[in-house]
Specification:
The structure is a homodimer of 598-residue chains. Chain A has 598 residues and is an alpha/beta fold. Chain A contains 19 helices and 27 strands.
């Protein structure tokens, strides 16, 4: 697979980058890039998460940042390989303050995509491998405290007599992953969570829920799942894992703690974070505040006339108790995405009469095809065997610029349409409204753009296709009656239970309630790329809005996403926080404008 | 490092073994071995753990076992390497019922040491990697139960309406490691432990205790410690890890459960194991019973005249509360091994007046030197970097025959004597009685032979040498007075607290109490090699007595040892149990005679 190395590349190094950047020679540096080029930087060059999408943008970024970053020591990490005319090279590099890792793709000797990521701050390396602590301090020492005593002391004082530097609101996978990273960096951090135990946010979901992403994609930082972990983890098992993880990682975690109010104290340069813990009010005073409540916000429950007079049980999918409470009843589920399908299937499995009301088209991605066609190359047993563990996969994944990502996905879904033609045909025959995203780019782009609009099919689509789950599509509920609902096409469906599988609102409402509407607006919309597709208005942003990077509200950060994102991007958020807390200069390049308030 | 491959070896395979054993040609097979040779087998050939120590012994074993084992498919695993005239080759092989892995060392083309180990039983492979379960069963299924429901059901029924196949008495590291292995093999198992929580047997030890073995040596099966784990884990941290591990591995574990009585029911071919759980009596009916109570037995407390009239506090080291309870008091510690040193050092650190009474000579191995000279090649960050992870290290370690193991250790301790000459000289100057084992082979041989007689120095020896810990050596306590002890040399030491760091008795007394004195005698002495050195009487056994292998009491097994042994040998014990429970023939070759009853 190896051809003659391109000019930017030589055995052992990247002389082009070393020389051009070492000499601060902008012309030479820009000349390393092709006319269509993307440089995605995760914190190393820009103290931001951003992508330069043209030679001119690369030049502008270097003009602003090169002298300060002072990159050096570009070394190949393994051998470069060439496939179909594209040469791929892993490398390491250094900046003035950090060590980094990157991935370069060259076409005809010119950089097409360049990924640069920060791995560690010099002088603040994690204490791993040869740097690990002794545990038993050899030698003797008067009045030393044991590990258990020190842990107990930390638990007793942090948040009371000792203030954390960082408070993370939300103790799901996002808060926990970040908590683990910050712990390793020695940043005093408190994670607060309204549920009692870590993992409860999974445990409390509907009974049949399993992760829709496979195990290779779901590892948390530092402690991979054992090799017999199920491909799709049942919700309670992942809940128990999160709970064990918090203990093992020594994360300071307050369960049963509700964040009530956050206010920036300009004079003290600290937040006042008022929380209620087991009924008592505590004010925390961190320097940095991270919101990890999930990138969605409050549950969406549409206002439908007559709802207040309904005699049965009505609830949002997030509060759905599972099928046992529905036996012998007639259930109507409003919505047709993941939760709606999972809930309908579990009801059918328990002999409950269930009707799905589909308001608009939905993308159906059969799990097996999705695994094989979309994820398998990076996150699968085969990938691991071929040397792509999740660390490597995360970087390959991160190296694909958002701007052109859809072009890689469209062929995947073309193939999926062919492979699953039978299922898709029968779904349409049953009246189900299908789509594959605005440009046919399918599931993952929908996830990035709007975070909704799909079902990863693990079996329910067959039940919809064969009529086991009854379907009313292209309609909405117009009116709720005491024992039925009337649809917009005039149909009346008897209903003892009404489930609103209608998704979630914007995170900004949480921010408005927690801090203030002004701050929520100043921060602006969270998530989405500005793709100008449904629910993701333009202009183009190039990166997910406000995620894991500096926001327009100083000292306020957003952490979250699926398990993969929580794992990978917590690395970069933790390094940004650590740098600020250690007083390193962190000039942010290319900070995004706020175009939308929610 | 590669020279011409020896005749038994060729690129890709071991044609000598393949041919000779394939043709059942004993002469050709024995001719592959040199005149001094050792074949250590872990279950694969012998359904036993045993070492053949001569060509004649190899022949006898093959005569008895070859037709049944039907070994085949000997393949090199990686390339063979030659250093100092010894060629080392990793290989895999199959038997009629299992797959195995081995390590061969050749000298002048002849096998000097051969290790064969069973890895998995055909048809009963662990569900890992590509075999892992889906978790979310795709498709739909009427009335399916969730993972949480199935776990709850298992917890509610196992030991009550559903009987476990295996009961493990003792839920320390040994019982837990075996529980994890059996869980993966699908063997219904219950681990019972008198303490409330997994890890309590560590938590309840003296406050300053940290593991004396380093992290690379201490991993449990399947879930290695994270890479920031301390080199020497503090006792409470390892306790918490064990507790999390039990949850993660889904081990059925009954805490607060005291085993009262075990009786083999010949008619039913099951044990009656009577336990008291939270005050209620439960009778368990397993087919196989494993004792994992620690290879030592009850605490040894010598009977010393006057003890009953002592006005202070006296306790065995296993009940020592740590220094806080001793402040302002005069403490006498009887004993000079690990616990005695750790306890004395922690007392000194807390300004307690403490005297160690050394009855006989002790081996002192400074931890740093021990790590570098003895363990570092196999269990260290450097070993991991050079490709020797703990899986590989365990097999290399296991490949050294016990018969000649001391010859590898003697030079290590010769070097330690040179390197630590200053410390040893000052210890002797302070009156401390030193030894290096009967033949100068040091710590690990003492551990294998007698399980006692040493201190891994993490700092206390300096305190002994400089007099901070007061020392009386070559004496015993002759008489205990109300507020002092009188030593055999006539000295009277004032004492408010008396700690018996006097070790543990034989496990057989536990067996005698749990089952019967007759069964304890039939099983015979546990641990030790028959080296004819102090506390390890001959004749030579070749393997640790009764550990992890069939005993003379059918359906009764002993599991235990340090974390390394609990990890590695649980593999072989679990496979032996699984084979029996699946009804595979398991003819045991070379079962040891019982030479000593305790």
């Amino acid at each position: 697979m190896n051809e003659t190395p391109p000019s930017a590349l030589a055995p052992g190094g990247l002389p082009g980058f070393e020389l051009a950047l070492g000499r601060r020679d902008l012309d030479a540096a820009v000349a390393l890039f092709g006319p269509e080029c993307y440089w995605r930087d995760l914190v190393a060059f820009t103290w931001n998460i951003c992508t330069q999408e043209s030679p001119a943008a690369v030049r502008a970024m270097l003009e602003a940042r090169l002298a300060d970053v002072a990159p050096s020591n570009w070394r190949l990490d393994g051998e470069a390989s060439t496939t179909d005319g594209v040469t791929e090279a892993w490398f390491t590099f250094e900046t003035r303050v950090a060590r980094g890792k990157g991935l370069l793709r060259l076409k005809e000797g010119k950089a097409g995509t360049l990924l640069t990521t920060m791995v560690e701050l010099k002088g603040f390396e994690e204490k791993t491998g040869e740097r690990r602590i002794a545990g038993a301090e050899h030698g003797v020492q008067k009045h030393r405290k044991s590990w258990a005593e020190l842990r107990a002391q930390e638990r007793a004082t942090l948040g009371h007599t000792v203030q954390p530097d960082v408070v993370v609101i939300g103790g799901g996978q996002g808060g926990i992953a970040l908590g683990a990273r910050l712990r390793r960096l020695g940043v005093p951090t408190l994670v607060v969570e309204k549920n009692a135990r870590p993992g409860d946010s999974w445990r409390k979901r509907y009974k049949s829920l399993c992760l829709h992403d496979p195990v290779w994609y779901d590892h948390l930082p530092y402690l991979p799942f054992p090799d017999d972990w199920p491909v799709f983890s049942p919700k309670d098992k992942i809940g128990d894992w999160l709970e064990a993880y918090v203990e093992i990682m020594e994360i300071n975690y307050w369960g049963s703690t509700l964040a009530k109010n956050c206010r920036w104290d300009e004079a003290a340069q600290r937040w006042d974070v008022t929380v209620e813990r087991d009924g008592k009010t505590v004010v925390l005073r961190p320097k940095e505040l991270v919101i990890a409540l999930g990138v969605s916000g409050y549950a969406n429950v549409p206002k439908i006339p007559g709802a207040e007079a309904f005699l049965g049980d009505q609830h949002h999918s997030s509060r759905h108790p599972g099928p046992d409470a529905c036996k012998g009843k007639k259930v109507v589920v409003l919505g047709s995405n993941n939760s709606a399908h999972d809930i309908c299937a579990a009801l059918w499995e328990n002999d409950v009469d269930v009707t799905m009301v589909q308001r608009s088209s939905t993308h159906i991605a059969p799990s097996k095809a999705l695994m094989e066609l979309a994820l398998g190359g990076l996150y699968s047993e085969q990938a691991v065997k071929s040397g792509i563990d999740h660390h490597k996969a995360d970087l390959i994944f991160a190296s694909v610029p958002y701007k052109i990502m859809h072009t890689f996905h469209i062929p995947v879904y073309e193939e999926m349409k062919r492979r699953e033609a039978d299922l898709y045909g029968r779904l349409e025959g049953a009246g189900f409204l299908l789509d594959f995203g605005a440009d046919g780019s399918g599931l993952f782009m929908k996830y990035l753009r709007r975070g909704s609009g799909y079902y990863i099919d693990v079996g329910a689509s067959e039940l919809v296709a064969n009529g086991s789950i009854k379907l009313k599509s292209g309609v909405n509920i117009e009116r709720i009656n005491p024992r039925s609902v009337t649809l917009t096409d005039g149909t009346e469906l008897p209903a003892d239970v009404l489930v609103y599988a209608t998704g979630y609102g914007s995170m900004n409402r949480w921010l408005a309630d927690l801090i203030s509407p002004e701050v929520a607006d100043r921060l602006g919309k969270v998530w989405g790329l500005g793709s100008d597709t449904p629910k993701d208005p333009g202009p183009w942003e190039g990166e997910l809005r406000n995620m894991w990077k500096p926001t327009r509200v100083p000292h306020l950060w957003v952490q979250g996403g699926n398990l993969h994102q929580s794992r990978h991007y917590s690395q970069f958020l933790s390094l940004q926080l650590k740098a600020r807390l250690e007083g390193l200069p962190t000039p942010v390049y290319g900070q995004a404008e706020v175009h939308h308030t929610a």
